[in-house]
Specification:
alpha+beta; 73 residues; flat; 2 strands; 2 helices
């Protein structure tokens, strides 16, 4: 089973490397009057990380509202 997960990790890393190599052109992101130029691959990674953070926070809020997670003091 360890070999299976190793293969999965290697495939995912290969796909990430292909994504980065194929998306190195610069794009402009405009938000609230600010303009930022960055590589497309970096933009994808930033959006993915923001989604992970906001998703985890949202799930924590839902669990707390349902009473499934003890509140921290």
């Amino acid at each position: 089973m360890e070999k299976f997960w190793l293969v999965v990790k290697v495939v995912i890393l290969a796909l990430i490397a292909i994504l980065v190599v194929q998306n190195i052109e610069m794009v402009q992101v405009k938000l609230l009057g600010w303009t930022i130029a960055m590589p497309m691959a970096l933009l994808v990674v930033v959006i993915y990380l923001l989604g992970m953070i906001s998703g985890r926070g949202l799930m924590g809020l839902i669990r707390r509202l349902q009473g499934k997670e003890p509140q921290r003091r």
